[in-house]
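Entry — protein

Goal — fold tokens:
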Amino acid sequence: MLINFWYALARSEELGNTPLKVHALRHDFALFRDSAGKAHCLADICVHRNGSLSGGSVQGDCIQCPYHGWRYGGDGACQRIPTLPEGDEIPAGARVDAYPVEERYGLVFAFLGDLPEAERPPILEVPEWDADGWSMITMEYLWRAHYERVMENGVDATHAEFSHADASAMAGDFQRGGETLYTLTEPVGPWDGGYTIDSPQVTLNQGYLGAVQGWAKMNFSLGKERGDFRFYYYVTPIDETACKRYLLHARNFQMGESMDAELIKTNWKFEKEDRDLLEAMHPVVPPRDRGHDLLQPEEQVMAHYRKHLRQWEKDGWRIDTDALDALGAERACAIPSPARRDGGRWVLPAVPLI
């Protein structure tokens, strides 16, 4: 699991007047809205006596710990200690990690890491969101599988005709005679990779952006006409064995609620077929040396993704899960936030990184 990426932690509609607890990257986070409705994300542990902030309440622009009433602002700094004598300063160490938050596409994203704003990878854009001529549905899935396997499944060019009975019509779309229809696409930045398959029946472009975001764009025949599907997904690791996947599915044909319902049903079916396969894979956690599988030429995009993962590990972004396990039940830590780069006292140590 990697820090320094944007992670979708919840749907915007889930975050109301009370704090929301979210578990990601083996850490708990407290989401809340201030009096203006702006979303905030804090490490879910009070530095006073380690109460769970998400179990508290929102008081004005602060989240109040349910244990002793300490209040923290959206920047993570403690704003009120009820027992502190009037006129005394709040201790400098009375703060928790606060993470940048953006709400887009009906989702609450938090940047779980300490990179300065100018150095952060982007959130995958969805141009069709609220655009004329497009309809959008949003779905949420829980996978009992490692997030890297889920991401690689999203850019797998050749599994559909074997894994999905309803996609058997795609047989042969990957190759015609001795000609391979698979073409790697040029990255548009330092974070992405992708490929295109162009056959008479369908043009498919798939790829990834960063460690946990991906897309699939399909243009296919509908009788005498052609239509477009756009899929955008955001994967959030819960731990090494589970993750959430938020899927945004756009289309520019056959509008209406009845088609929405049909596509939701179809997406659930496809998702379950992939999920059953991935949840049965072994080892559960892909080895970092990737010595357990044999990639083929048409899977170059996966090789590119793995190369990126190795680079981000060299950059010091991978959580050392062995060291985290060694801390046991007597120690807690936090994903480092951007404020840690300014120094100062922090009660909780930063999560161990490789």
